[in-house]
């Protein structure tokens, strides 16, 4: 049912009042036309057109033309005002009325003044006024044959750099290999097979792209973008029907080494588009799918511009109606050191593990590595079925981001227990505890449960307990502290606190639902029990030893300023004492970290092995190896590294062998 407008209602009341003998003025008729236009009721507008205009364009053509233009430029807030104080009469019984149009579009506001000619024609045996419509009534400069065009002005995606300006996610030229179907002639099968062989994909993958609905014989059909670094295109050009085009594509120069951190972009999916269309996304747009590409999507994406214009029948630009320029995405500069990231990745490659490197005087995150990894360039340039299946079937799960995962820290946690005991006075550092054998159980209340250690030393002080990593010493210390004091002291190191980083990462925890038994308390003292820590948090718990007791906050972006997370967490005396013990862990030939000893450096560190098994009698369990190290004198680097499944591979010493070369590479 059509909406009754104000002017229709006025006309109806005039008729009911016997005023039908009065003719509508040209202003009345034009106002009814303008109101229909303002409401974008184009079918009703058409009823006000002159006979001559209707002969040139059917109602369907008229409605479709307006709808196509207005929908294309996304017209909103349309306001049309007639100006009748200066009407002009013309010869032949016509009259010219002026009006003003204001509208908002996807390219910004459009406003113009124009005029329309009304002519008197017979309707229902009476003379009435009708609009002598012509294309200029859409936009003043339009003529027959002109069209209104809309062009998206693409914003350039912001790039991501490391602290030194090395590109981590950049927009770079790349070769796109494709096929022009009509040039295949009678060699179609041979060409497809040859191309598939060069690209290491199946012929069916190529045929699937050639069978897309939009494909025409003369069009270039992109098949794949050459992998990053591949520049030899001659073999492709020798295949009949194959062509090469150069395009700018998202590129990740460090490939797998930064994959989990940076992530990758892909063409927006139908599901994503349905959710994000109102935010300005459209089919074919590129969107961040994982990592920082996804997290900082709104900053990196920028904002597309829109150009609304009139072109003549020959396709030439005639007039710009409105234009909003594109706003390029922001550039991000991370605190990361890409070369260090790459070297750590090289050390870990082949293992399932993770490593976090920190600038210990500022808290800047210099490296965030997770292995195994995947090549993010493949998702942009063309991912083969074979490669996808290989990654998905890999039991080490290359898509799993381990530097955001929490796991048991094992003995690298002992520095926290030591600091807590010294602070509360339950540890007298020079006091030697009498410990006999490799097993210890408090009493029968433990039900046969026992704590084990590796080195059989009859008397142990704090220095020995850290240097030789004595579980029993720390278990006894925790029992002396008691559950409440232990939990309160350890929690001060940032447990249960969410880090203000853009990643989704669960806080480190001491337990699932509280420490409820002495056995759990004893195990917790040396980083087992139900303790779970992220590598980032663990690395930060070692920063007090290089900042006179202050624990620093991790910083991801270069622009961020040094921030203290926990002020005066450890007193000066405790800092110096534990720091000296960590130096001995590496320097002492019998220390658990001696494998990391470098004569030209002063490496301090702590090794740790976390058992992953159901119970003490489980002989099938595995072990995760940890090593945390820093240079005491240079104070330029702190590394926390964890490698899974080091049982039968040297335990934590296997990890130490991966950490040592990193320090050796530094100046």
Automatic annotation (TrEMBL):
It catalyses: Preferential cleavage: (Ac)2-L-Lys-D-Ala-|-D-Ala. Also transpeptidation of peptidyl-alanyl moieties that are N-acyl substituents of D-alanine. Pathway: Cell wall biogenesis; peptidoglycan biosynthesis. It is found in: Membrane. Keywords: Membrane. GO terms for biological process: cell wall organization; response to antibiotic. It is an enzyme of class 3 (hydrolase). One of its GO terms (cellular component) is plasma membrane. Residues 153-320 form the Penicillin-binding protein dimerisation domain. Residues 25-146 form the NTF2-like N-terminal transpeptidase domain. Belongs to the transpeptidase family. PANTHER family: PENICILLIN-BINDING PROTEIN 3, PEPTIDOGLYCAN D,D-TRANSPEPTIDASE. This is serine-type D-Ala-D-Ala carboxypeptidase. It comes from Robertmurraya siralis. The gene is pbp3.
């Amino acid at each position: 049912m059509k909406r009754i407008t104000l002017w229709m209602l006025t006309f109806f009341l005039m008729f009911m009042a016997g005023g039908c003998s009065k003719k509508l003025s040209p202003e009345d008729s034009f106002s009814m036309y303008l109101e229909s236009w303002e409401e974008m009721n184009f079918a009703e507008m058409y009823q006000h057109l002159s006979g001559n205009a209707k002969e040139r364009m059917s109602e369907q053509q008229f409605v479709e033309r307006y709808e196509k233009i207005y929908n294309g430029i996304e017209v909103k807030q349309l306001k049309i005002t007639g100006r009748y104080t200066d009407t002009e009469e013309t010869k032949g019984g016509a009259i010219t009325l002026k009006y003003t149009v204001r509208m908002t579009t996807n390219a910004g506001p459009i406003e113009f003044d124009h005029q329309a000619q009304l002519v008197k024609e017979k309707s229902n045996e009476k003379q009435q006024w009708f609009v002598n419509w012509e294309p200029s009534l859409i936009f003043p400069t339009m003529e027959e044959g002109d069209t209104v065009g809309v062009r998206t002005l693409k914003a350039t995606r912001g790039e991501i750099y490391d602290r030194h300006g090395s590109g981590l996610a950049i927009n770079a030229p790349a070769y796109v290999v494709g096929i022009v179907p009509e040039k295949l002639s009678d060699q179609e099968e041979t060409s497809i097979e040859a191309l598939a062989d060069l690209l290491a994909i199946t012929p069916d993958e190529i045929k699937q792209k050639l069978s897309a609905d939009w494909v025409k014989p003369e069009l270039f059909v992109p098949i794949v973008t050459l992998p990053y670094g591949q520049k030899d295109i001659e073999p492709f050009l020798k295949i009949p029907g194959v062509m090469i085009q150069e395009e700018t594509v998202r590129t990740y120069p460090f490939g797998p080494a930064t994959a989990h951190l940076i992530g990758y972009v892909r063409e927006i999916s139908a599901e994503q588009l349905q959710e994000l269309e109102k935010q300005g996304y459209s089919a074919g747009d590129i969107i961040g799918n994982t990592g920082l590409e996804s997290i900082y999507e709104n900053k990196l994406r920028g904002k597309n511009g829109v150009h609304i214009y009139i072109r003549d029948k020959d396709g030439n630009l005639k007039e710009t109606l409105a234009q909003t320029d594109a706003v390029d995405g922001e550039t991000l500069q991370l605190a990361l050191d890409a070369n260090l990231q790459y070297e750590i990745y090289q050390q870990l490659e082949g293992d399932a593990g993770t490593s976090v490197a920190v600038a210990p005087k500022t808290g800047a995150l210099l490296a965030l590595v997770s292995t195994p990894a995947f090549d993010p360039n493949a998702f942009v340039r063309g991912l083969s079925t074979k490669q996808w299946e290989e990654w998905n079937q890999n039991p080490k799960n290359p898509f799993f981001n381990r530097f955001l995962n929490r796991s048991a820290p094992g003995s690298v946690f002992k520095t926290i227990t030591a600091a807590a005991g010294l602070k509360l006075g339950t540890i007298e550092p020079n006091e030697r505890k009498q410990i006999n054998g490799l097993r210890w159980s408090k009493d029968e209340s433990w039900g046969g449960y026992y704590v084990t250690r590796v080195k059989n030393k009859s008397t142990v002080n704090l220095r020995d307990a850290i240097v030789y990593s004595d579980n029993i010493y720390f278990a006894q210390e925790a029992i002396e502290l008691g559950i409440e004091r232990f939990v309160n002291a350890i929690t001060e190191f940032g447990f249960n606190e969410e880090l203000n980083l853009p990643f989704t990462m669960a806080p480190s925890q001491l337990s699932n639902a509280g420490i409820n038994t002495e056995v759990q308390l004893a195990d917790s003292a040396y980083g087992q029990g139900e303790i779970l820590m992220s590598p980032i948090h663990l690395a930060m718990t070692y920063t007090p030893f290089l900042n006179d007791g202050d624990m620093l906050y991790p910083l991801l972006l270069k622009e961020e300023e040094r921030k203290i997370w926990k002020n005066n967490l450890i007193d000066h005396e405790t800092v110096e004492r534990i720091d000296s013990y960590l130096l001995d862990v590496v320097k002492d030939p019998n220390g658990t970290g001696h494998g990391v000893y470098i004569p030209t450096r002063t490496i301090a560190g702590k090794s740790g092995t976390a058992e992953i098994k159901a119970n003490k009698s489980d002989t099938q369990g595995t072990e995760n190896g940890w090593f945390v190290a820093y240079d005491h004198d240079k104070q330029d680097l702190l590394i926390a590294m964890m490698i899974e499944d080091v049982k039968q591979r040297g335990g934590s010493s296997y990890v130490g062998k991966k950490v040592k070369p990193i320090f050796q590479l530094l100046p």
